[in-house]
Amino acid sequence: MSKHVIIVGSGNAAMCAGIAALEAGASVLMLEKAGEGLAGGNTKYTAGAMRFAYDGAEDLLPLLKDPEDPRLVATDFGGYPQAKFCDDLLGFNGGRPLSVEQKRLISESLFAMHWLGGHGIKFEPIYSRQSFEKDGRHVFWGGLTLAAENEGVGLFDMELAAFARLGGEIRYDSAVTDLLTDGEAVVGVRVGSEEVRADAVILACGGFEASARLRAELMGGDWEKAKVRGTPHNTGDGLTLAHGLGAQKYGLYPGCHATPMDLHMADYGGLDLPPGERKNYRKICYFLGVMLNADGNRFVDEGENFRNYTYAQFGKAVLEQPGHFAWQVFDAKVDDLLYAEYRFHDAHFVEADTLEDLCARMEGVDPKGAAATLAAYNDAVMADVPFDPTILDGKGTRGLALAKSNWAQKIDTGPFKAFPVTGGITFTYGGLKVSDTGAVLHEDGHVIPGLFTCGEMVGGVFFEGYPGGSGLTSGAVFGRLAGRGAA
């Protein structure tokens, strides 16, 4: 007899759980807190990029929407072996070894992508943000190559279509307010006054990033001041319900994915905008210039690594500056390399023909300190190393207390632009411990019968940072695991 599964949430992880459960023969009801327009959780706010281990183009071609794209013959995708994925995650672990969850993410990442591809979810090479043209070829960098067509909105739409084709049902405006139990087993949920019974419940309703109260309580520091980049509905409801049953807290609760965001962005990424435009409030081209705080000082090595590996940490670094803001400074030499988000109609910036005037126009910044920092930076730039944004080019600075390691060019060609940014929180890292079937573990180590989880609610996947594109892949890997386990 087939099982009946309830899934709480409707983002990428929830959809993958639903597809997997239906594939395994279960009937599935998905309950979404938001109305139809805001369904999909944080997925709709993403650029739809997914990081996974692959050996070469032969692993990518089956995933492409258009395998006949004429650009492909002049494209160098390179490879991203599992060993490199391991190294990248270890680089953000703060000395911790790879967790069991990270090992699963790495080993199952390619399979999860091909599994999605088998359900009609197709992808496109990220030419605009992950490649540079070099010697007539498109050269990809940073191990991140593919994104869903129409980014996060497209990923959600394709997954929802696959879920519906398999017979899944979704109800909107249906916030789950409690878990129903029989003894220790979870046997359903409460939606307002309605009780909905099931053989298993999968919590896939995100972290607690949209709750200022929980950010202050569980993360501390300056996180209460952060802009919320994603959905307003990820307020920790699932975590709170699971903790109430004694579920094991697991992972780094003060940790989160953050990114530099437009200082004047409204919370929740601009809900008045079409979903595909909400990411335009990100400002992640700092590697092409410098970032200055209120004292006019640099505070990070903007060229430490490809931005895929630094933006999640630099969002936190910006938030820790005086006044919780910074300014990103660029000159005209890199204007054509800045991503579209810097030309977004609602992008805030100041412009001047001289650096002196620019420093005077950066609100909240000590103009003398900023001018001195920029002069010292320009004097320290290596003139004998060529600039090459397709590689870690080693074009850095010499003699500065805080070096810029790569892509350091003098800021000397007007007009000059500066963009004000703050730290924006995307999702939290602290979550629950799961079994090898995606079941939620009690704090004493045993499985809580009937309760599963996936997505942002799985702890132990990320710690002190994350390589870009890993979050959606984690949602697919652990969503599939929970769906199969629940079914």
Automatic annotation (TrEMBL):
<keyword id="KW-0274">FAD</keyword>
<dbReference type="InterPro" id="IPR027477">
    <property type="entry name" value="Succ_DH/fumarate_Rdtase_cat_sf"/>
</dbReference>
<feature type="domain" description="FAD-dependent oxidoreductase 2 FAD-binding">
    <location>
        <begin position="4"/>
        <end position="56"/>
    </location>
</feature>
<dbReference type="InterPro" id="IPR003953">
    <property type="entry name" value="FAD-dep_OxRdtase_2_FAD-bd"/>
</dbReference>
<dbReference type="GO" id="GO:0016491">
    <property type="term" value="F:oxidoreductase activity"/>
</dbReference>
<dbReference type="InterPro" id="IPR036188">
    <property type="entry name" value="FAD/NAD-bd_sf"/>
</dbReference>
<keyword id="KW-0285">Flavoprotein</keyword>
<protein>
    <submittedName>
        <fullName>Fumarate reductase flavoprotein subunit</fullName>
    </submittedName>
</protein>
<dbReference type="InterPro" id="IPR050315">
    <property type="entry name" value="FAD-oxidoreductase_2"/>
</dbReference>
<dbReference type="Pfam" id="PF00890">
    <property type="entry name" value="FAD_binding_2"/>
</dbReference>
<feature type="domain" description="FAD-dependent oxidoreductase 2 FAD-binding">
    <location>
        <begin position="160"/>
        <end position="470"/>
    </location>
</feature>
<keyword id="KW-0560">Oxidoreductase</keyword>
